[in-house]
Amino acid sequence: MQKEPFAGDKKVGQSILGPLEKKAIDFLVPKLPMWMTSARLTMTTIIWSLAIILGSLAAEHWDVNWLWLVSMMIFMQYVTDSLDGSLGKYRGEGLIKWGYYMDHFLDYIFLASIVIGYGFFLPDQLKYQLFFVFAVLVGFMVNSFLAMAATNKFRITHMGIGPTEIRLVFIIINTMIIFFGKTHVAFLLPYVLIAAFIGLCYIVYITQKDIWAEDKKALHS
Q: How many angstroms separate the CA atoms of 194 and 132, rounded?
């Protein structure tokens, strides 16, 4: 039996902002300078993540307006993360498996940096809730990677919600903290946790159901 080619560079599903993203990416990729490679774009997530942690520290100890820097770093990570894979395909750089591994490992680092940053703001009695939020968000990532291993289909968008929309939520939260204060925003955390947990349960149910069906189909084929 011929082995199915690796499909980690082919994402399944469409997010709400996906069509606009594709137009922007198709416009920008041919205009990027030659020194800017897909690997360099991928590795910039380390810079953005460190800046998020430092910006969050500065916002906590000096001025909450440093959160504008954090939001800018989230936007920059979105830009580089959106362009790296498309640039690699456009130039035929061939780093498909490396890109899959490094890109998504750094996505975890990026998410961790945001949660660490929020940890500087929350009262001690709410930090355990932040831990659970992080655990649930990582659960979405684990589900995608395990499903990829089982089906060779890489899906990071569910019900129109993907990494782009999640980044936008973080930017909105930062903006709310700047204008309304962290104490007035902290009450939202339990609702975010509940919504994320319900979403994760639904996605895991659908994923395991699809994999079960594939196993049964293969058994009788």
A: 10
